[in-house]
Amino acid sequence: MHSTEICIAGAGIIGLSLALELHHRGVRVSVLDQGQPLAEASTAAAGMLAAGDPDNPLELRPLSRLSLSLYPDFLDRIESLSGIHVPFHTSTTLQALPSHLAGKIREQDTLAPATLGLMLPQLNAGNHRFVLLAEESLDPRELAGALLAAIRATPIELRPDTAIRGIRSVRSGVEVETSAGMLTALSFVDCTGAWSVTSHLLPHLRVAPRKGQLLAVSLPTDLPLHVVVRTPEIYVVPRTTGPSINRAVIGATVEDAGYDKTVHAGDIARLRSLAAALLPQLAEASEVETWSGLRPATEDRLPILGALRGGPNQGVPDKSIYIATGHYRNGILLAPATAHLLAQILTGETPSVDLGLFSPDRFPTERE
């Protein structure tokens, strides 16, 4: 029987970031994934660190601010281990105000048409009112490659194609039954996103997949784009360096389609149409790629972070099974903060942000 200190289920951006943080603290870690590392939502995202997105729940702001403050060290650690630099592609976002905020923002706090014209002459603002956000973006595929290389440069045990068949609390911690045999650990952390292991064991912790379809286009020469353009319906995220330079990611649908990742031509055409309404040059831009991903969503659109107080037959003791999932559209943004806070909990520290709003206990069980 194999043993480790911390067993993490899920080798996406959340699971691997947590593994790296725990390794940095001297903890022995094993990461299991039913498929391949970073093959799902982590590399399907557009890569906006959208802490200021007005569509995000207000309760997310302290966690988002913490994560932004941790990002430079997070990327530096990855680079020091992997030798791969992960660049930011943009540093500003033109954000159109959603309807519920349009009447609450003073006219002088929005960008005047003349200012918009100077910043992005190709923009057709229409009835949108825009504000400027200091907000960075990166390419999640570049991040994934560097993060995986960093993990492989450490003693962290990474076990792909390893499905979890059962979790059982024991006096010494947790026994995890996998497709490759039994594993024991002091603690177990569910970072499996839309495939949440513990939400199947505890049905009141509902984590549902929310499908997002996207496309990438080559930017035409008359649209040199260096800022993100985002409205409540659409975003356009340019790639300004590296192998994807002069491309832009356009997204994304939000669908309740279960685990179906089929890309539909009609949905892609609608995304392009919405983007072209803002930036007309995109109407004829050459399509490079289309894809989809599954975001892990909770009922209140907030992540679930912390220890579980119950399990199969209510047999899970305190501080043995944890969950870190439900990041919805902000997994890339929130990875450093999630890793930092969960590592603090797992190593006996007091979390630097109150996690009460994100506790699994906020969801009542069927008996409550």
Identify the notable features of this structure and list them briefly.
globular; 27% strand; single chain; D-Amino Acid Oxidase, Chain A, domain 2; FAD/NAD(P)-binding domain; 9 helices; seven-stranded mixed beta sheet; alpha/beta; 368 residues; 15 strands; eight-stranded mixed beta sheet
Describe the structure.
The protein is α/β, with parallel strands linked by helices. It folds into 2 domains: 1-86 and 139-207 and 298-368, FAD/NAD(P)-binding domain; 90-135 and 208-296, D-Amino Acid Oxidase, subunit A, domain 2 (D-Amino Acid Oxidase, Chain A, domain 2), CATH 3.30.9.10. It is built from 9 helices and 15 strands. Strands 1, 2, 5, 6, 7, 8, 14 and 15 form an 8-stranded mixed beta sheet that branches. A hairpin with a 7-residue loop joins strand 11 and strand 12 (247-251).
What is the gist of this entry?
The protein is an alpha/beta fold. 26% of the residues lie in helices and 27% in strands. The chain is built from 9 helices and 15 strands.
In percent terms, what proportion of residues is strand?
25-35%
CATH C-level category of the largest domain: Alpha Beta
Spans of at least 5 consecutive residues whose pLDDT stays below 50 are 311-317
Q: CATH topology of the largest domain, what is it called?
A: FAD/NAD(P)-binding domain
Overall number of strands: 15
Per CATH, which architecture of the largest domain?
3-Layer(bba) Sandwich
The helix/strand series, from N terminus to C terminus, equals EHEHHEHHEHEEEEHEEEEHEEEH
Based on CA atoms alone, the radius of gyration comes out at 21 Å
Main beta sheet = 8 strands, mixed
Kindly report how far apart the N and C termini lie: 38 Å
- Count of helical segments? 9
Mean pLDDT: 92
